[in-house]
Structure formats: structure tokens, C-alpha cells
Amino acid sequence: GEPVQAINETNRGPSGIINVPTRLLMGPGPANAHPRVLAAQTLPLLGHMHPPFLKIMDEIQGGLRYLMQTDSKYTLMVSGTGHAGMEACIANLVEPGDKVMVGVSGIWGERVADMSRRFRGNVIELQAQLGSTLSYTTLKENLLQHKPAVLFLCQGESSTGTHQSLAGLSEICKQTNTLLLVDTVCSLGGVPLFADAWCVDAIYSGSQKCLSGPPGAAPLFFSQKAMDKMQRRKEVPATYNLDLNLIGDYWGWFGKRFYHHTGPVSTFYAMREAMALVAEEGLENMWRRHNEMHHQLWDGLKSLGLQPFVENDADRLSTVNTIKVPEGVDAMALIKNAMDKYDLEIAGGLGPTAGKVFRIGVMGFNAKPQNMALVVEAFKDGLKQQGKLKA
Ligand code: PMP
């Protein structure tokens, strides 16, 4: 038989009950999940192909249609985080040699450009000025000049706090035969989006932001046009794990259901519950609440003399807010004070905004008045401690 050896007992890993501190997550995500969503995750597991579980997946697809305002059959949750949704869109839409025009207004555009190159797309980057977005005119000119197969835009850029408008693009994209791919990871459910009316062709998002879920499920939508391009591909996508023909089979896109991978059962329970919360509140109410909380936050921050990093009102994202670090303020000390004293997460900048801003998320379950008030209080306390605010 096989040799039996003495077990190495020196490092047994964890023991005892897990201990997690309670924190208010007011950075760019994850936001705190809704208690109903957390409760759903504790329900008993079902098999990933059991009919009651498939019914839950169908319910999620219905919820996504409402959230994204589409009648398309092609909605699902990718098993993975926002990045998995991003990579699923790119791997399936981009064929080697395709022109991919990527709007870059922060790190997410950069990442999509990188990913598109890995799938051998011919990437054309359109760089927005730091803290602003791409204008309709710039987009139009470049679309007409390059006629790309795919245009990527990030609706909510969490690294810079900008909101990219999609207005008027559908007409031009039709003219140039371009598919419009949009990142809505930190905007879906927080700001208006009408997939069908705006002729968006592909969307990916995340579960852990405005949808009040845990990280680990990426909402995804394909239009019929996007589906047609995907099905005309000469070669299968260079990824098995994220091949949407195969994942679509698991979600029943093409009729019969086939096993592709084991769906994250508990995470999908959570997202079913998150979809129910959206349906119960109503999209318009959700958008209004996020907008109102964003304004409440800024009323408080401005009263402390703090200024938005994004200069133009129209470019400012309501769900992830970037706040200039004032001259002489120690951002790290202020962030640490908020955590130590209030169990409150305030985030610093990321990528091009590193060291320049604080970032505050106004998302999902956390987008409520008492949280805005606490964030303002934590800024006030932090500034006072550094002598940057008069008593
Ligand atoms: N896009 C945007 C705009 C994001 O804010 C994030 C997450 N911060 C992502 C993509 C990536 O999502 P994840 O971290 O869930 O993979």
C-alpha cells in the first residue's frame, strides 16, 4: 500500500468560529449587502441542475431584464465578479483583428483595452481628460473615422467618479455597424439605463454595489445583434470558462439546459433576493434614492469646504463620489480615523486619482440618510483633528 506518514500538525489552519467585525462600507465597493440578501445565502443548498434551482435562475434573468430595461432573452449572471463579466463580453464579442474602440476615463477603460488585446482585438484608445468624460462629438468623429466592431464605454468610472453619457450614440453605432458594450459595475440600479431604448448591445455589471449583494455574480446582457455576431464567429472564443454559448446553455438561452459549471448556488440565492428588492422598490425610486443621497452627501461635504474632483456637474457620478484631498490634509490619517473611530470605510483614490481624492460610495443598501450623515461627521472629525477646520 501507500506509505503512511506522520501528519504535519504544526500548521492546522483556522479553528473556532469565524470572527468578522461589523463595518460600514462606504468606499467604492463592496457596499454592505441587504440583510435579506445575506439571509438568503444561508438557505440549504440545492443541486445546480435541480428544477427549483433552475427556477431561481429564471427569476434572476427576469430581474435582470427589468434592471437593464430589455426584452432580450439574453441575460444571465456570470459566476464570478465584475471582471468575469468584462472578460465574458470581450472574449465572446471580439474576434482576432476586430477594431475595438475603448473609451478611457480611468482604470476600467485601461483594463478593457488590455483585455481586448489579449483576445487579439485591434484596440483604439480614446482618452478622456482626467476627471471628465468623452463628448458626443469626439465619440461621433472617431466612430465615423474608424468604424470599430465594438465601442466600449464605462458608464460609471469608479476610479475617477465620472458618469459617461450614452446619449445619441445608438444612431451613429447603427451607421458604423458598431456594437456598444457598457460597463455598469458601479452604476446598475443606481443611475438610469435603458438597454433596448438606447440600443446598447452588451452590458456587464457587478453584484456588490448598487444591487446590495455579495461579490461573486456578474449581471450580463447581450442584444440580438451581439448574439448574432457571437454566433457568426469563425473560431470559438479563447476561453472555455467564459464561453457564452456554453454558459447560455446552462441558463436556458437556447432551450435545453446543459451543465457547464456548478453555479454558485448560495450566491445565486442572494442575487434572486437582490432582484426581488429591486422589483419591490421600483427602478425609478431606486435611481431617485441614489441621486438624493448623493446630493445630501455633497451638501454636507461642501459645508466642510470639501470640493468635488469632477468639475462638471454633468460628468459627476452619483454612486461613486470623488472628493479632492485638500492642500495639507493627510488623507491616510483621515481614512484611518474614520475606521478606528466609526468602523467606517472611506476609500482613497485608485490609478490616476491615487493620492488625489477620497472616494465615497453611495450604493444600494448603504444609500440612506443616516449613512450620508455619518460620512460627513467622519470627515468633519478627521479635518478637525488635523486643524483643518475651525472648531
Ligand atoms: N468596473 C468598474 C467600474 C468597477 O468599479 C469594478 C469594481 N471596482 C469593476 C469593473 C471590477 O469588478 P470586480 O472587482 O467585481 O471584478
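The pocket of 4'-deoxy-4'-aminopyridoxal-5'-phosphate is lined by residues 28-29, 81-83, 108, 154, 156, 158, 183, 185-186, 206, 215 (CB under 6 Å).
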